[in-house]
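testing teh design pipeline on a random one, pls ignore if ur not involved
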């Protein structure tokens, strides 16, 4: 191994705290946990931390990490003729029994062929033999639609790692392998895995097979709370302890895959969260609360108070505007957090109803005014262009809304004696599987770029306003990878051959992108991702799509454990309102103590 790569890996390991590496070969089964991107991004992902923890908790399994090499390291690997190796022991990936991918974002699909090539493992599962690792995968992107990468992966896990990983390890350990080999025959193991609930085996399942049902962890989040397992400065969050305090969101924003994939919200108790925070406090004073809807947590006041008592600097994910409270703002000010991220999404009330957000422009401005009044003068604002039914009036509405918000910010800045700023983040709409917008057409790149240019020009001369915009080209690629079928494996391979030039790859293969980005006129047609059953009624998604086309708002369920009539909640939970009505308040659960969380930190 080139010395500079060894030195860099050793430096990364030395800067980590919380890792408990298990020597390669010291246990019966060796798993390489791969994130299809760099260390910096991979170690920012809680899914990697959770799986690493679950794997190494098993006394018969050793799990090490693998990442996409930095460009200079990749060049050195190729020049030296060496294979891709693990971070902890620098063991070649091909020597592991299992290669497990955690895939959170569809663009990372394009990195899979490179990782296979560097590891000298055939990319296509049909080309691998008994001597090579079993390749499995899970993660948010892949269980939404596994088909674009189904030809690369032996077994795909659909659901939550805390239930699927232990079940997989049981089957693996019962296989008939010797000396740590995967199995007497790979086919036999795959057939066993195909019978496991929540496991999709592309080579065994057919179009006629029943959809693989997503598995959910029946226990409480106190039993397994995803959190930072290894602290390091070499991530996006830099030594910040991240903890998932809840999972799911009842709001029902029609573009949001997370809200539809996790329909019944689950919470970790305040007692469990604060125990974990106290355990890691000697190593960091920074904590990040992760959730689709942070302030939906019924014990959020207790959590914030307890973290303040521990003298933590608190950061939160993007907030639903209607959730923002004076108590939260005071906590952020105390933590020296000078920026809040909010998502108005649109510039007009009508289009906001289309996406199922009930707040009006006037309400949002008043909420932002309260943020400025607390002394937080910097706002990051998320907007989308290209949403269904969007008109020029909607696009112009973003410009006018931001200008009005800038006036409010400047007025508050004068009172506080310092000037704030607004960062406008423009994203192009990308439809996601298993949402009401899965049938919606994506606008062509020229139209999307025209909208972005219009907004950028409109805000270009406004003081203390900055615009960042997603490239429409990226939106089209994400749409293809999100909504594609199994034929995309050849596209992904060809893109790798073309050194990332996916348009040239599509031309080589005669693939027309509009095949995946066009409107799907027949709502009843079978979609590629229907090999999965995430538990959401297709009739419900159709109903929500029609509601969107009429700009009608569907209120969230008043039950904290439920939501609108999605096929998950009982009919009694249904609560629909006319546009402009406000959702009912949801009752809180009483606080309670839970079992000790499955978290391991060194003394």
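output:
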């Amino acid at each position: 191994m080139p010395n500079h790569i060894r030195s860099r890996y050793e430096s990364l390991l030395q800067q980590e705290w919380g890792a408990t590496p298990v020597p390669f070969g010291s246990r019966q089964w060796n798993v390489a946990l791969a994130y299809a991107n760099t260390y910096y991004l991979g170690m920012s992902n809680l899914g990697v931390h959770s799986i690493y923890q679950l794997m190494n908790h098993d006394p018969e399994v050793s799990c090490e990490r693998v990442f996409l090499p930095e460009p200079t390291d990749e060049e050195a690997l190729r020049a030296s003729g060496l294979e891709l190796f693990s971070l902890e022991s620098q063991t070649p990936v091909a020597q592991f029994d299992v290669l497990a991918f955690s895939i959170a974002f569809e663009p990372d699909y394009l990195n899979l062929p490179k990782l296979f090539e560097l590891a000298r493992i055939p990319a296509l599962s049909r080309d691998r033999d008994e001597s090579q690792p079993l390749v499995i995968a899970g993660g948010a992107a892949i269980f939404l639609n596994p088909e674009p990468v189904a030809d690369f992966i032996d077994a795909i896990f659909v659901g939550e790692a805390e239930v699927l990983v232990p079940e997989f390890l049981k089957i693996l350990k019962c296989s008939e392998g010797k000396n740590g080999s995967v199995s007497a025959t790979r086919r036999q193991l795959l057939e066993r895995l195909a019978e496991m609930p929540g496991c999709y085996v592309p080579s065994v399942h057919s179009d006629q097979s029943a959809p693989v049902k997503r598995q959910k962890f029946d226990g409480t989040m106190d039993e397994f709370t995803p959190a930072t397992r290894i602290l390091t400065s070499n991530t996006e969050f830099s030594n910040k302890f991240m903890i998932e305090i809840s999972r799911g969101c009842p709001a029902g924003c029609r573009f949001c895959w997370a809200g539809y994939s996790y329909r019944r919200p689950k919470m970790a108790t305040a007692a469990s969260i604060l125990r974990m925070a106290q355990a890691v406090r000697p190593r960091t004073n920074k904590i990040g609360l992760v959730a689709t809807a942070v302030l939906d947590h019924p014990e959020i006041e207790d959590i914030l108070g307890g973290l303040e008592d521990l003298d933590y600097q608190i950061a939160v994910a993007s907030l639903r505007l209607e959730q923002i409270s004076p108590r939260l703002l005071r906590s952020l000010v105390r933590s020296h957090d000078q920026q809040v991220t909010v998502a108005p999404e649109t510039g007009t009330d009508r289009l906001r109803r289309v996406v199922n957000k009930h707040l009006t422009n006037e309400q949002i401005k008043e909420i932002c005014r309260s943020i400025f009044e607390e002394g937080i003068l910097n706002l990051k604002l998320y907007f989308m262009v290209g949403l269904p039914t969007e008109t020029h009036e909607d696009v112009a509405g973003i410009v006018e809304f931001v200008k009005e918000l800038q006036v409010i910010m400047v007025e508050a800045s004068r009172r506080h004696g310092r000037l704030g700023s607004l960062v406008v983040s423009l994203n192009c709409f990308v439809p996601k599987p298993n949402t009401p917008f899965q049938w919606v057409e994506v606008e062509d790149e020229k139209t999307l770029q025209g909208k972005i240019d219009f907004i950028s020009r409109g805000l270009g001369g406004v003081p203390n306003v900055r615009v960042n915009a997603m490239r429409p080209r990226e939106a089209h690629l994400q749409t293809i990878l999100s909504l594609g079928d199994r034929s995309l494996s050849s596209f992904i391979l060809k893109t790798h051959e073309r050194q990332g030039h996916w348009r040239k790859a599509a031309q080589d293969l005669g693939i027309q992108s509009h095949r995946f980005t066009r409107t799907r006129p027949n709502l009843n047609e079978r979609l590629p991702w229907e090999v999965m059953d995430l538990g959401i009624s297709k009739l419900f998604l159709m109903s929500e799509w029609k509601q969107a086309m009429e700009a009608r708002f569907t209120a969230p369920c008043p039950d904290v454990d439920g939501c609108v009539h999605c096929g998950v909640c009982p009919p009694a939970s249904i609560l629909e309102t006319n546009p402009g009505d406000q959702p009912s308040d949801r009752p809180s659960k009483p606080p309670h103590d839970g079992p000790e969380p499955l978290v391991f930190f060194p003394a």
